[in-house]
Design brief:
Blueprint lengths: L28 E10 L16 H13 L7 E3 L8 E12 L6 H9 L3 E8 L10 E12 L12 E3 L5 H8 L4 E4 L17 E12 L15 E9 L6 H13 L5 H10 L14 E8 L20
Parallel strand pairs: 3-10, 5-6
Antiparallel strand pairs: 1-3, 1-4, 2-3, 5-9, 5-10, 7-8, 8-9
Helix pairs in contact: 1-2, 3-4, 3-5
Length: about 300
């Protein structure tokens, strides 16, 4: 796995840290944007944590070595993915010494690939903020509905060993669209009151069956192995929101829930009736949008759970 020097908490990157154009003891700074992908296996999430391997810890250490910074750089990411969650289109900003003009993409990839791969690294205006400037995030979840697991998908998809009703899952998805209080489908942040609403706006959400190469899509109700893809876009997400949603919708595919169940959960504002979140390894952050770019500039397609490289 990619090296991780167990970065200090500063590597997690609280948005707005520092003014990249300000002269200080470390000299003037220039802000950089990095677009990257990573395999979540072996990492305890994105945010840096003392004593455990994280994406931020490995990335900050690699950038620090490349730019020869005296201290670990501070990273700000668009979405702090949990342990085991993958990314195809994560966005990070970082402030580096103005004098640095190296090939940051190449330098980081030589140290961290294939576990972490930078697709693009470039200087950006000092007011670019990877987290606060994002207008939407796009996540994808893969479910393998089949009697037997598939070893080639074991690290990318949740294996559900029974047939799932895709139409029922699509119907149960509809109530999620728009702005709602998602307390029933989010893990509450420690120290936050249970009475405080967690309002998020879902822009789009839907299921589709992903046919194997050369395979015809079967007729509805046909009992064959199926790789199912759930795509959801929202202005922002709360902790475990996508995985909790997927768990409820898979219950709908099993006949245990419906659109009415989803509406009742949203109205309850309580996790009491919510199933355990779906496994982390089926989830991938596909892209992040900024300004008028609604899907982060990435196209659909590519490998299961991923978007193609640019």
């Amino acid at each position: 796995m990619a090296p991780d020097l167990q970065a200090a908490p500063a590597a997690q990157g609280a948005a707005g840290a520092g003014d990249p154009g300000r002269g200080d003891g470390a000299g003037r700074r220039r802000r950089w944007r990095l677009d990257l992908a990573y395999d979540g296996h072996g990492f305890r999430g994105f945010a840096a944590q003392s004593g455990v391997p994280t994406v931020a810890g490995a990335l900050a250490a690699a950038i620090g070595r490349a730019a020869r910074t005296p201290d670990l750089p501070v990273l700000v990411c668009a979405g702090r993915t949990d342990a085991g969650v993958h990314a195809a289109g994560q966005v990070v900003h970082i402030d580096l010494p103005e004098a640095y003009d190296g090939d940051l993409k190449r330098a980081v990839n030589r140290q961290l690939s294939p576990d972490i791969v930078v697709h693009a690294a470039r200087p950006v205006p000092g007011d670019f903020d990877a987290r606060r400037g994002a207008t939407a995030r796009h996540y994808r979840y893969l479910v393998l509905s089949a009697a037997d697991p598939d070893p080639l998908l074991a690290g990318l998809a949740w294996h559900v060993p029974v047939p799932l009703d895709l139409r029922a899952m699509a119907s149960a998805t509809d109530p999620l669209l728009g702005e709602h209080d998602f307390r029933a489908l989010c893990r509450r942040v420690p120290g936050r009151s249970a009475a405080e609403p967690i309002v998020r706006r879902v822009i789009s959400a839907g299921w589709r069956r992903v046919p194997a190469p050369g395979e015809d899509v079967p007729a509805p109700g046909e009992d064959v192995p199926a790789l199912l893809r759930f795509d959801i876009r929202a202005t922002s997400f709360c902790h475990q929101m996508v995985r909790s949603i997927v768990a409820v919708l898979v219950d709908a595919g099993r006949g245990r829930a419906s659109a009415a169940t989803v509406m009742a959960l949203l109205a309850s504002a309580s996790r009491a009736g919510t199933p355990q979140p779906a496994p982390a390894h089926g989830l991938c952050l596909v892209s992040v949008a900024y300004g008028d770019d609604r899907d982060g500039g990435r196209e659909e397609g590519g490998l299961p759970g991923q978007a193609p490289r640019r």
